[in-house]
């Protein structure tokens, strides 16, 4: 906003405030300040004045004529060579590491020291020791006596599939009294077997020489029951010869 216009607005605002103040005052105040003598009227005129124009000085520019520049003629080669400054060759001087700036110096190369590890010690070979078969110690007590039963087919000379089979039965027990007396011998029995393979009768054909051994064999075989003898695939009743051997 221009300065004259701004001052005009301020003046109008002051007059408006003064008029409003006078308008609000009561009539008695007007009468109090009313002059009794001759009144003098002062006229206030308001005129808008335009700001003064800035002083602008006119400057006259005189343009001088410039002649075109003619293209320069090339110099002869001999003169051009004479005008070329001769630069002395710079000898390559190796720069020492101390002359180089700190930012240019290469970092020191670490030295690697080869360390040769000693070979691991050879482990001793562990040979598996085969356990030697030690002979069995003889028992302090005497080995229980054994009772051998000769197969019936071997005793009577029959075919293996024909005679009765009593292999599933327990052999006779060695009498304790015969063991104490160190009695040994073989008793031959004749057995009568029915169709079901049960021994129904026992007869002593040949004694062992000791009645204790004969009776032990006969009483044990009397309780046997096995597979009956067969002929042409059919079960038959038969008589079997059974040797029983007592030995210590």
From TrEMBL:
<keyword id="KW-0813">Transport</keyword>
<feature type="compositionally biased region" description="Polar residues">
    <location>
        <begin position="127"/>
        <end position="145"/>
    </location>
</feature>
<protein>
    <submittedName>
        <fullName>Transport protein TonB</fullName>
    </submittedName>
</protein>
<keyword id="KW-0472">Membrane</keyword>
<dbReference type="InterPro" id="IPR037682">
    <property type="entry name" value="TonB_C"/>
</dbReference>
<dbReference type="GO" id="GO:0005886">
    <property type="term" value="C:plasma membrane"/>
</dbReference>
<comment type="similarity">
    <text>Belongs to the TonB family.</text>
</comment>
<dbReference type="GO" id="GO:0055085">
    <property type="term" value="P:transmembrane transport"/>
</dbReference>
<keyword id="KW-0653">Protein transport</keyword>
<dbReference type="InterPro" id="IPR006260">
    <property type="entry name" value="TonB/TolA_C"/>
</dbReference>
<feature type="region of interest" description="Disordered">
    <location>
        <begin position="61"/>
        <end position="145"/>
    </location>
</feature>
<keyword id="KW-0812">Transmembrane</keyword>
<keyword id="KW-0997">Cell inner membrane</keyword>
<dbReference type="InterPro" id="IPR051045">
    <property type="entry name" value="TonB-dependent_transducer"/>
</dbReference>
<feature type="domain" description="TonB C-terminal">
    <location>
        <begin position="159"/>
        <end position="248"/>
    </location>
</feature>
<dbReference type="Pfam" id="PF03544">
    <property type="entry name" value="TonB_C"/>
</dbReference>
<dbReference type="GO" id="GO:0015031">
    <property type="term" value="P:protein transport"/>
</dbReference>
<keyword id="KW-1003">Cell membrane</keyword>
<keyword id="KW-1133">Transmembrane helix</keyword>
């Amino acid at each position: 906003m221009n300065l004259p216009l701004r001052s005009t607005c301020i003046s109008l605002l002051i007059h408006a405030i003064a008029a409003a103040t006078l308008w609000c005052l009561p009539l008695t105040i007007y009468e109090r300040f009313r002059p009794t003598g001759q009144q003098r009227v002062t006229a206030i005129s308001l005129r808008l004045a335009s700001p003064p124009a800035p002083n602008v000085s006119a400057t006259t520019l005189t343009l001088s004529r410039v002649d075109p520049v003619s293209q320069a003629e090339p110099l002869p080669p001999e003169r051009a060579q004479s005008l070329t400054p001769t630069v002395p060759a710079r000898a390559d001087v190796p720069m020492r590491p101390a002359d180089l700036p700190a930012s240019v110096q290469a970092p020191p190369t670490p030295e690697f020291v080869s360390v040769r590890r000693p070979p691991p010690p050879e482990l001793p070979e562990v040979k598996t020791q085969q356990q030697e078969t030690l002979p069995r110690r003889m028992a302090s007590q005497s080995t229980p006596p054994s009772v051998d039963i000769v197969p019936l087919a071997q005793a009577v000379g029959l075919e293996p599939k024909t005679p009765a089979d009593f292999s599933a039965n327990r052999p006779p027990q060695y009498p304790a009294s015969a063991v104490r007396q160190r009695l040994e011998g073989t008793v031959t029995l004749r057995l009568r077997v029915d169709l079901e393979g049960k021994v129904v009768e026992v007869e002593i054909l040949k004694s062992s020489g000791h009645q204790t051994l004969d009776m032990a064999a006969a009483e044990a075989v009397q309780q046997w029951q096995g597979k009956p003898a067969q002929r042409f695939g059919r079960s038959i009743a038969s008589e079997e010869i059974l040797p029983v051997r007592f030995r210590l």
